[in-house]
Design a protein that fits this description.
Thiol Ester Dehydrase, Chain A, elongated, six-stranded antiparallel β-sheet, 150 residues, alpha+beta, homodimer, 4 helices
């Protein structure tokens, strides 16, 4: 999809991403560096742990979900970073070979009063697995270029 | 440090992590997979971007900060995952060669009413750079094993 400017994002706008599979290798490699808890890096120990098997780091699920949104292309040329996340909830574990997709909805928008060449879009991301179960939800505050900045 | 059980974490308890350096290579490698925005993966394009140079993905800063907490050892044997994050704020950019450390403080604690073998500790993480500037803050809701589970 084409890049969208701040003005183009209406409250209530939604977009669905393509699904993407999570692999065991990726879970382990990510976790070794960014979340080295036993149930993310060691299959044998994970069996005795709180999830009964290996699960994805929630931080990895977060990065994958953002990347799914980014890959739609809508903020490719207009995204200027983000200033925060609210109410992130890990609802169900994500297992190796799960396939995740994300639905994004614009909840609010506000042009920056200090610098009106950009504005915040506040979006809800809902992450589903292949059984249409919600595994994670998170609210993001993205900074998006305004048309007036051109 | 020794693993701490739910009962051992008092409201107001704080712990400071060791500092850890962030490298350019790590910023780019992480971002290629989990946050492929230009200003995280391409030095030349980053110069023309909102930060004027390459910066760490906020998701990577988050994973590093959690890992710093994990490496203190206090939840090594007692951590049972987390159910959410609140009020994450990216306050200043993190640049290559910055050195980050995290201060963790217990804000609240609550034994699970459904399953009293564990409880939530709600913690504030404050991430500082080498100039003692706050680059990020986040509140986490960690599940911790209770002594009664033994």
């Amino acid at each position: 999809m084409k890049s969208m400017y701040f003005e183009d994002f209406e409250v209530g706008f939604t977009i669905d991403t393509e699904p993407k599979k999570i692999t065991k290798e990726e879970i382990v490699n990510f976790a070794k560096q960014y979340d080295p808890q036993r149930f993310h890096i060691d299959e044998n120990q994970a069996r005795k742990g709180p999830f009964g098997q290996l699960v994805s780091s929630g931080f990895m699920t977060l990065g994958k979900s953002f990347t799914q949104f980014f890959e739609t292309g809508v903020i490719d040329k207009t995204g200027m970073g983000a200033w925060g996340i609210d109410e992130l909830r890990w609802i169900k574990p994500v297992y190796p070979d799960d396939s995740l997709k994300t639905k994004i909805e614009v909840l609010e928008k506000k042009l920056s009063s200090k610098n009106p060449t950009k504005g915040t879009i506040r979006t809800l991301q809902i992450v589903y697995n292949q059984n249409n179960e919600i595994v994670m939800t998170w609210i993001s505050n993205f900074l998006i270029k305004a048309k007036s900045s051109n």
